[in-house]
Amino acid sequence: SKTQVGFIGLGNMGNPMAKNLIKHGYPVIATDVFPESCKELQELGAQILDSPADVADKADRIITMLPSSPNVIEVYTGPNGILKKVKKGSLLIDSSTIDPAVSKEMAVAAEKMGAVFMDAPVSGGVGAATSGKLTFMVGGVEEEFTAAKELLSCMGANVVYCGQVGTGQAAKICNNMLLAIGMIGTAETMNLGIRLGLDPKLLAKILNMSSGRCWSSDTYNPVPGVMEGVPSANNYQGGFGTTLMAKDLGLAQSTATNTKTPVPLGSVAHQIYRMMCARGYASKDFSSVFQFLREEEGQ
Ligand code: NAD
């Protein structure tokens, strides 16, 4: 039978991802700072422990799915962190979207303990996490990629090797900058069309058969009533939080600054998502930028 896999961070994404590992026959040992998020997994037979160190004491393959860089630093290098009790030869895979510089630091710290750290952020959202169809962008030593892929393919349809540690994050940050720009563009375009008297469903249909088509228009439309089964159909609950998108755009900005790369639309997108966080949209899905633009009207 398969040996146990550790999973740390059972939020919107981690919960369905860990469930897919269980479905594929891996016994899961998990932890989360928020006990409520462990309930569902415990009912499916996962063993729940108190800290990342306890998980590392039992499992030599661990996946982490945490909000942002400070949480990853704490879970790996904190007083009850993975590296306090990690076994030699362990494979540590971080699927959070964080600063690639932090991924590199974690890899160095893990190596000192005789373990291997890889970054493997995901694209796809909660729907893809649930159906096991995520895309994983993997950075780290190439010899470990096969071992990482064995686990990641239980949760994803695409597992892509990107290069040295941190390059998975680089690919993810680029994707999300384009996603944010595309979502704002879709929201303002749909709003203009509505103001010009077009039916939003018809406008979406036309965009989706024309050159303006993008993921935000055809798979995740931000206008309520255009599509079913997306956050805009459910008062922008669930999905990918505005705070997380603002974080990813901040990562894009700092990496762009460090490499002297001009990203003018990425900058504007970052400011818009930061304003939304300050105006009560923090925990709504990022497609609520449509609602935000409607509120700005007539001001
Ligand atoms: P989330 O906030 O729903 O879940 C994060 C979980 O980590 C929470 O349950 C939290 O309690 C736990 N946590 C935080 N600090 C911890 C600690 N010190 N020890 C143990 N557990 C801790 O976030 P999410 O939506 O699942 O996203 C996770 C990551 O995946 C983020 O980096 C995000 O940017 C990225 N991501 C999210 C989506 C999406 O659609 N939600 C899509 C792609 C990538």
Structure description:
The chain is built from 14 helices and 9 strands. With 299 residues, it is α/β, with parallel strands linked by helices. α9 packs across α13 (264-281). The N and C termini lie far apart (63 Å). This is 3-hydroxyisobutyrate dehydrogenase. The active site is at residue 172. Residues 166-292 form the 3-hydroxyisobutyrate dehydrogenase-like NAD-binding domain.
What is the share of helical residues? 40-55%
- Number of contiguous helices: 14
Distance between the termini: 63 Å
Task: Point out poorly predicted stretches.
Answer: none
Strand content: 5-15%
Strand order of the largest sheet: 3-2-1-4-5-6
Listed once per kind, the bound small molecules are: nicotinamide-adenine-dinucleotide
The H/E string reads EHEHEHEHHEHEEHEHEHHHHHH
**Rg measurement, Å:** 20 Å
What would you call the structural class? alpha/beta
What general outline do the C-alpha atoms trace? globular
Compute the number of strand runs: 9
Overall average residue pLDDT: 96
